[in-house]
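User
New here, explain this?
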Amino acid sequence: MYNLVLDFIESKIEGFERPVIEFDNEFSYEPRTRVITVPLNYDKALEEHRWWKRFMMMYLIDEYDLCLSVTDDYIFSILHEIGHYITLEGIPADVIYIKYHEARKQMDQAKNAYDYNVQYRQISIERMADLWAVNFIEEYPEVLNIGKKVLQY
């Protein structure tokens, strides 16, 4: 499915260079290597991170007025990581790590889980990746059809 998303992005963004994608248990982006990791098993990832999916679906409605289904949220997660790949290009990895960890230290861990995770989404690099993904979905909503066709949920 990741190749289908990358093919779609390539068809819409001239000069888009495909990132390396590896499989792991979660979605992530590594600034030093510019590698994106995605879960190999969607069903397992969905079950293990159900609370995060519910949070993200609520957060995207509250913050961006973007209503997604569970399969849409999976595509959003892929686009979010690609958003890191695009928005952090050219920024030295050490600078990214320093700014990220400074922001994490300032988060109020006493807040409830929802508010704490909202704080996390407001970290500049997370917000930039979210904004990139939201803007891409708003400009090309048909990207969400990839998840619907492949995942059949």
User: Anything to note?
Assistant: The helical segments are 2-12, 42-48, 50-64, 70-87, 93-105, 113-121, 124-139, 144-151. The longest helix spans residues 70-87.
